[in-house]
Design goal:
The chain is of the alpha+beta class. The protein is about 25% helix and about 40% strand. The strands form 2 sheets. Strands 1, 4, 5, 6, 9, 10 and 11 form a 7-stranded mixed sheet that branches. The protein has a 4-stranded antiparallel sheet with strand order 2-3-8-7, with helices on one face. About 5% of the residues have low confidence. One of its GO terms (biological process) is proteolysis.
Length: about 200
Amino acid sequence: MDKTETREMLTNDISIREDDDGNRTLSGYAVKWEKRSHVLGLYYKFREQFKKGAFLESLNDDDQRFLWSHDKSKVLGRVKNNTLRLKEDDIGLRFELDLPSTSLGNDTYESIKRGDVDGVSFAFRDADDDIYEPEDDLPLRTIKKAKLTEISAVAFPAYPDSEVSARGFDPMKQYDDELKEYREEQAAKIKTLINLGGMK
């Protein structure tokens, strides 16, 4: 099962600059630390936040791409080629992307410059998380560590808080399934012990 998770966020922090030689660079934040998300979850509603350092190991070990709308055939930049630069700072996960001189690069530049595209999305997997369940609010999932796979420019849909803004693998369903399985195992063990006690 593919456990890749995708998050989309509206941001006014994408900046775009062009130098005298016509080189164009996008920059901004894909993630901001400990900023609670909108309501997420297909199966079980929750909110989510990322701890500082969540992607540090992945940034050192992996070769992330910057894509157009999560389309793997539309690559705008890549860490290995230094056309995409990723860095964690005190605010969040910051990116710098050198746009290619291609039709895709030109379209991306114009769409962001005009404001038609003003969203950033990122995909991650293998999350190490904590889940806090307050009595008076939705569960809060805190991602402590994860493998970052890609960042995308997206035409962000205006999701209200009551709708789903997470796609792919649903971590809370897995959490709920594992909790149910654990409780069933414990109940079976207790039943076995009771039966053994009754046989004496």
